[in-house]
Amino acid sequence: MQPETSTLSARTTDAEKNKFIISAVNGTGLYVLAYYLVWGVYNAVKVQASHFFHLRGLWTPSRVVYTLGDNEWWRTAVVTVYSMGPLVCLLVGLIAFRWYWRSERARRGQRKLLLLWVAFQACNAVFGALLADTFTQSGSWYVFDWLFRLGNVVNVVLALLAGLVQLGLGYFGAIAFLQAHDSRTVMRYTNRQKMVVSTLVVPWVVGSLFIMLLKQPYLTIQEILHLAMMGLLITPMALGCLNEVFSDTVKRPQATRIAWGLLALAVAIAVAWRLALSPPVVFG
What we know:
Strand content: under 5%
Shape: globular
Structural class: mainly alpha
Radius of gyration: 21 Å
Largest sheet: 3 strands, antiparallel
Low-confidence stretches: none
Helix content: over 70%
Transmembrane segments: 20-42, 81-101, 113-132, 152-174, 195-214, 226-246, 258-276
Keywords: Membrane, Transmembrane, Transmembrane helix
Distance between the termini: 77 Å
Number of helices: 11
């Protein structure tokens, strides 16, 4: 009976391994899809605000850049244009998280995890991006620099506070992230380290690399920092998941299989983004 027992054990191990691989693949697709949804809204709002103020610029695959001289800007235009994206993303994030928490977390399927990733990406577009933009003195950094005019020390302090907020939201978001998974195998506390790697670390790293690859040669340091700042959310969330013993899931979980539709949609949107903005779209 020993050979048969060993065979069954090996099959069980392979089945569990496949579930974590599938979770990693699906999570990466959801990460990429949520990224383009959030930053699509971010940049679209920014361009619309630019049209309102008759500003000239280019919408590239990586960011929105302006072709105005320094003397052509004024305070109202700067504050409005560079604050609209974060404000709308903050609203999108709150709506996505509320939708998830009140309607989706007790249901099975991938939609609840997509909503959560949208909320995470929106959080990063507000708090993480502010910290990243302060390093490069671009993007949302201009809002506080032109609004308060209190010097770079105050700007840096505000950016560091934004980073701390992102860290805190990441840690306290762990319980919500755990509730977004259906698989009993993935949710088992003894598998928590594998769960963290496959559903958090892999989607962030692989998804970010995929996004950066598709943005070449337009990729900028600012965009790389934006993607890196997701680590301020992912790292404390991973620690929170490791410390949290919660391991329940929905009563009738959906079978663990690759979400081909969502993956195809994520790739299609990423490719369409690149094609639509190459060459960059001129506005103003």
